[in-house]
Amino acid sequence: MSQQTNWETSAPVNPQKGFRIHLLVFFLTTPAIWLVWYLTDRTYPWPLWSTPAWAIGVLFHYLGVFVFKNSKKN
């Protein structure tokens, strides 16, 4: 049995849209994470680890999409 896949036909990629989705998820999820922390044990502020780490990821995503644009070579 063989499975045939065609990797050449894919949907067009829009990097700006991908970044906007990443930023939206960051802004919607981060307050939820802090709310969970607030409503549970507040002895250690564990969201202080995930929030800046994720923000750095969003920053690098922004830089990759808008600052260091890679032109496609066809």
From TrEMBL:
The lineage of its organism: Bacteria, Pseudomonadati, Bacteroidota, Chitinophagia, Chitinophagales. This is 2TM domain-containing protein. It comes from the Bacteria. It holds the Pfam family 2TM. InterPro entries: 2TM_dom. The chain crosses the membrane at residues 21-40, 46-68. Residues 13-68 form the 2TM domain. Keywords: Membrane, Transmembrane, Transmembrane helix.
